[in-house]
Each structure stands twice: as C-alpha cells, then as structure tokens.
Write a structure and sequence with these properties.
190 residues; binds guanosine-5'-monophosphate
C-alpha cells in the first residue's frame, strides 16, 4: 500500500535493527485519514470472505480495526491486556509474550462478544514473531469460532512470525512488509 509505505519512509523512526517507531500516525498520535484507507484496503483484500467480527488487541490495533469494522458494518472487539475488576470470569484468555516490552501479558475477551458462529478477522498494527496473532487465534479457537485470516498494518518480514503462521495455513494480508531496518533505513519487500 503506497500511501502507508510513503508515510513510514517519511515519519518512521528506526530505533534499532529490529524496532520501528511509528508513533506519529499509528502508535500514539493517529492519522485517521490513513487509518480509513487502511480499513478500506483490508476490506478490499478480504472482499471474498464473509466476516462477522473484527478482533484486535489493545491499544494500537484498535484504530485500524475500527476503520475496517466501519467498512464491513461489523463489530470490533479488542482483547484487553489486564483483567478489569468487573471482568473476572466469563473470559476467553491466552498468554502473549511482548516482543517490544519483554513481558508476558495475559490477554482476555469476554465470552459475550465472541461465539461459535462468528467468522473473525484478526487485525494488528505490527507482525514480528507472531506472538500476538497466536494469542488472538487461541482466543478465537476457545470460542469455537472461525478465523478467516489476519490483517497486519506493518509486517516485519525479516522476523519469523509471518512465515511460520502462513506455513500453518493462516491467510495474512500485510499492507507494508519490511525487509530490513539495517543502517537506520527502512527497506520493503516489493
Ligand atoms: P509479535 O507478537 O508478532 O512478536 O509482535 C507484534 C506486537 O509487538 C504488536 O502488537 C506490536 O504492538 C509490537 N511490535 C512488534 N514489533 C514492533 C515494532 O517494530 N514497532 C512497534 N511500534 N511495535 C512493535
């Protein structure tokens, strides 16, 4: 997606050979025009599928997921990273190791918002080692629902998550796929 790749080149900050900071449009400040285009692009790529629910993880997946939900007319559910006091049982949950924060989060979704007849698309801001996606897939499986596929805003293709999950049969559509962050430069796969 050219608009997104241009934005990454203009505003992305390469923090190391493995971490990209995009807090001017996705991870802190949000560019709603770009996120709207992202939502439309996901919808186009999955136009061959019936989708009843969009699932993401707080917080940075929420913006792209919501714009997709708007196009599809489908509800958006975000997995929470902390159990709130009012949400103690009636939960699907899984453990996710965070690549950027080096911590394990228990993520959870209320059983009220995912059911066995749902056809779910999973959205996230980044795909690195695939831990977040695996945790979200586990939650969909606990609900007995069907995973239609995943939509990723920025995949870092030099890490292993995308390849592993595709080999397991998961459909993943990523809108920008980074080949390298070496020498402070962002290089994309074609
Ligand atoms: P994974 O679970 O695939 O290893 O990592 C994906 C998750 O880690 C995403 O939800 C994202 O929040 C975070 N993440 C991974 N790599 C990066 C990165 O380079 N930049 C930012 N901003 N977040 C990242």
């Amino acid at each position: 997606m050219k608009l997104l790749k241009d934005k990454i080149q203009q505003e992305g900050k390469v923090l190391s050979d493995v971490v990209l900071k995009v807090d001017s449009f996705l991870n802190h400040q949000i560019d709603p025009m770009l996120m709207q285009a992202v939502g439309e692009e996901f919808a186009n790529r999955y136009s061959d599928e019936i989708i009843t629910k969009v699932l993401t993880i707080e917080s940075s997946g929420i913006a792209p997921a919501t714009f997709l939900g708007l196009v599809l007319g489908a509800p958006v559910v975000f997995a929470r990273k902390r159990k709130s006091l009012t949400l103690t049982d009636n939960l699907y949950s899984s453990k996710v190791y965070s690549f950027t924060k080096n911590e394990v989060n228990e993520i959870s979704v209320s059983k009220n918002f995912l059911s066995a007849d749902d056809r779910v698309i999973i959205i996230d801001d980044f795909l690195a080692n695939g831990e977040a996606l695996k945790g979200l897939i586990e939650i969909v499986q606990q609900a007995g629902a069907h995973v239609v596929g995943a939509g990723i805003v920025i995949e870092k293709g030099f890490q292993q998550g995308g390849q592993q999950l595709r080999e397991q049969g998961l459909r993943i559509e990523s809108l920008a796929n980074i080949k390298s962050l070496a020498n402070g430069k962002v290089e994309f796969f074609d």
